[in-house]
Write a structure and sequence with these properties.
The protein has twelve helices and seven strands. With about 250 residues, the protein is an alpha/beta fold. It has three domains: about 130 residues, Response regulator (Rossmann fold, 3-Layer(aba) Sandwich), CATH 3.40.50.2300; about 40 residues; about 55 residues, Arc Repressor Mutant, subunit A, CATH 1.10.10.60. It has a five-stranded parallel β-sheet, sandwiched between helices. Strand 6, helix 4 and strand 7 form a beta-alpha-beta unit. Helix 2 packs parallel to helix 3 and helix 7 crosses helix 8. Pfam families: HTH_18, Response_reg. GO terms for molecular function: DNA-binding transcription factor activity; sequence-specific DNA binding.
Length: about 250
């Protein structure tokens, strides 16, 4: 039975998470709790959990340090930051450290479920590729249909800074030939398709989550939240915040 560790000094928060897990499809996890950094560190060493859910503000130290220690011992562990502190620098730190999710309290059951789904799917994909020996970026290349393969590559890597040269290289075409072929088959340029796909992904995040705009921008591959907002408005004729407000009851 895989272990999950919740480290939070607020009993109500730990109880909410424990009850959610016990009544969900993730009840196969063995859930353990700690209310301080020191106890959390001890349980990390003893239990070797698959998932760590941690509050930033902890007696004795902070959740980022605990998450860093967890990733140092086990790079495959999924770390979820669960906090009331809505500070962009914290969110960016979580992204830079390779943590799996950043949830702002109070959080809904659907937001927790979405975070868990992403983590479980990613873990299964990683384990499958490790078992089969396949590389994620080359497993689905079809040389007879390079543009279809390039679309798969874009949809798998859009969160990262990707270029036309990288995508062309992934399907073994020269950049100029790939660019011409892409426009002929898709009716738009590579960059137009990539931008449109990122905007569509952002619309789902804006509708379904309460993540800050800055976080969404980085999650879909924009290096600047300002550029994301400008691009979004050009595409949708409204700002990201205005779009989100359309779905708030």
């Amino acid at each position: 039975m895989p272990n999950m560790l919740i480290v939070d000094d607020e009993y109500e928060s730990r109880y909410f998470l424990r009850e959610f897990i016990a009544s969900s499809e993730y009840q196969y996890f063995s859930v353990h709790e700690a209310e301080t950094y020191e106890k959390g560190l001890l349980l990390l060493k003893q239990l070797k959990p698959s998932i760590l859910i941690v509050e930033i503000s902890l007696p004795g130290n902070n959740g980022f340090e605990l998450g860093k220690e967890a990733k140092r011992w086990d790079p495959e562990i999924s770390v979820i930051i669960y906090t009331q502190l809505k500070i962009f620098e914290y969110v960016q730190s979580a992204i830079n450290l390779g943590f799996s999710a950043f949830l702002l309290k109070p959080v809904s059951r659907s937001e927790i479920k979405q975070a868990f789904e992403r983590i479980i799917v990613h873990s299964l994909s990683t384990e499958t590729n490790r078992f089969t020996g396949k590389r994620e970026d080359t497993a689905n290349v079809d040389l007879a249909h390079p543009i279809e393969s390039s679309i798969q590559y874009i949809q798998s890597h859009f969160k990262n800074p990707i270029t036309l040269n990288q995508v062309a290289d992934s399907v073994y075409l020269s950049p100029s030939h790939f660019s011409r072929l892409f426009k002929e088959e898709m009716g738009v340029t590579f960059i137009e398709y990539l931008t449109a796909y990122r905007i569509e992904q952002s619309k789902s995040l804006l509708k379904m989550t309460s993540l800050p705009i800055e976080v969404i921008a980085h999650q879909i591959g924009f290096t600047s939240s300002g550029y994301f907002a400008t691009t979004f408005k050009k595409s949708e004729r409204c700002t990201p915040s205005e779009y989100r407000s359309l779905f708030i009851n």
